[in-house]
Amino acid sequence: MDTDRLLRELTDFLRIPSVSTLPAHNADCRAAAEWVAGELRRLGCREVQFLASGTHPVVWGVGPDVPGAPTLLLYGHYDVQPPDPLDEWTTPPFEPTVRDAKLFARGAADDKGQVFCLLKAIEATGRPPVNFRFLIEGEEEYGSRVLFELLRREPERTGADVVLIADMSYIAPKWPAVYTTLRGLCYAEITVRTAKSDLHSGEFGGAAPNAHEELVRLLARLKTPDGKIQVPGLYGAVRRPTKAELATWKSLPFKDGEFLKHRVQARALTGLKGHSVLERLWALPTLEIHGIMGGFTADGAKTVIPAEATAKVSLRLVPNQKLKTVERQLAAAVRRFAPKYVQASVKFLHGADPATVKVTHPAFKLLDQAFREVVGRGTVPARAGGSIPVVPALGKGGAAVILTGIGLPDDRLHAPNEKLDLKQLWDGIKVFRRFYELLGARGAEDGR
Ligand code: BES
Ligand code: MN
Ligand code: MN
Which of 237, 308, 339, 365 could serve as 320's disulfide partner, Cβ 3.0–4.6 Å? Predict the structure, then answer.
């Protein structure tokens, strides 16, 4: 493997600041889409198109025909999360740097590095052994609205035997995984207005309502200190994992103490008592406050009573919950918890239903074999706490959806100093190459 060349190429991709949620980066998202399209052409795709060409195009590709072989759809995303806080990066987020055999950059693991891995594994096969299709989108980190619409209009795009998604990590070093569920997401802004405009806190303080005070009280009502979410009805659809599944989680290489000390790096873990940490991360809904806006936050001091305050919040949803229902439940809870003299409103920004996939299709055995051959251990089934909005839609046409990844749990996705271990990347290219070849060889028999 010409690792120097590969590293140079990945570095070019990572240098493009394709932050999908910030309009200032629209041109960069376009440039990242062009980069992907260029790679697909180099792989000999007979069709490469930008679909739903709103701001961040979906890159669609059709690989060379391989008669009799199965069809494999590769899904991934070229967009990334905002890199802030910038001063916490050791080297700048869009100047990819290798330290300690790790490549540091925004998108190194989520998901540009993994898209790169899937594509370079095709190149490594020499001649593609299966019928490749590609859907590489640029809005995953912002809810995938464009791709959703597209798949509703053109569901035939997902007509494949297998969909492969590499947008996750091993569950521990040397422990590759396939994921059986993803959590869903309901992202919202809650706004509270208490007066026509801001007021002098001396003239009015003591008698006028304060928007920030009302907002924090409202937010505090939404969750108890021990982690129970107080949105009425929210837990109604939640099913506990079976005893058997909970038991298998006990044998995974996951230790609460290590998780706290090395990954969370806080003083204590929080959340619902009576449920293991993995159950809290994988099988229970959450409510998080991401930020609170409004009032006076600049340098110095200003004595003012704010008239408006907004919080960005999100709930993670677990299998059997529905985004639409949860949106209704959250809006009702906000109406119910806000006092009469407060105007409270909820605006939903984006969201995703949770996803469940079966891991029984023969292709899972082939991926297991590929990992076993290359890294010495096959895949363990696990669940994931994160979300990939289009996963339920990708499986609608009957394809087996494989959720896996080559990252490691300490890659710091969405956070400062995101990285990808180079060993994971080189191994990943070998694993996927082997998987493609196994799938191609089995195609004529039962691989489909
Ligand atoms: N790759 C992640 C999803 C992920 C992360 C799954 C870790 C499993 C483990 C993806 O890029 C992501 O971050 N998705 C967003 C979706 C949202 C913005 C709609 C997420 O989960 O916050
Ligand atoms: Mn991702
Ligand atoms: Mn992400």
Answer: 237
